[in-house]
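#struct-help
A.M.: can someone run this one for me? Single chain, 160 residues.
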Amino acid sequence: MPTVYDFSAKTIDGKSKKLADFKGKVLLIVNTASQCGFTPQYKGLEALHRRFAKRGFAVLGFPCNQFGAQEPGPESEIAEFCEMNYGVTFPLFAKIDVNGETAHPLYKHLTSAKPGLLGSEAIKWNFTKFLIGRDGQVIARYAPTTKPEDIAADIEKALG
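D.P.: on it. Structure tokens below:
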């Protein structure tokens, strides 16, 4: 069975990055947007990233413009927005699609490994979160309304 380590994606600055580079870490993979009601979650995501980084944890942000066109700008604008407004230091990737035929292969994997409510694989909105264990397997899927701080206990458990 594939793991998240079998995928790669372009970083926000256009470089190809293998997720295998994160092997052995606990990850929180999130589809993000700069103009969403949930955008302030960047602050909580960054807090989690800083709190657990030394223990082998990372947040990975994947900007997406598929929900209400709430991520319309280019990657350079997204990176600047995240840094200026939320002090984001966790890795951000290039804008991707998370649903449909053009969905990034990583997201096709995540949504099939951990379907949402009523078995639906589709991502419902920005800031859907996937917790990944050190083995690269999907542990849990969280709704956009789940605040980052409410995931801390699950991250603790996954870190061991």
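A.M.: thanks! Strands lie at 8-10, 16-18, 26-32, 57-63, 129-132, 138-142.
D.P.: also worth noting: The mean pLDDT is 96.
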